[in-house]
Fold this sequence. Notes:
By secondary structure, the protein is mainly α. It contains 4 helices and 2 strands. It has a two-stranded antiparallel sheet. The two termini are about 30 Å apart.
Amino acid sequence: MEMFEQAISRKLRFTGPKGPITTEDVYATKDLNLLNEMAKAVHAELSNNRISFIPGVEGGMTDAERDNQLRLDILRHVIGLRYTQQQAAAKAIVTGK
């Protein structure tokens, strides 16, 4: 839960298709495709900022990069949670439980 506390205390926002989304709204989202697209966008931004072709040169993370890493960690967590819930619901339908 620590990552959610950090996100809420920083008032971290995520970029959604209709504008900024709060951490709470990301957690409440059940649309795996939307979460996946958001995660891919954050990952691409992180990857683009961390490129260095000089061996051993990476430098420290900026505040914006730390925020993006936190966004990605939260999105991965929520995607895993929603995926597990969807799989359990599908199994319950098949097994009748």
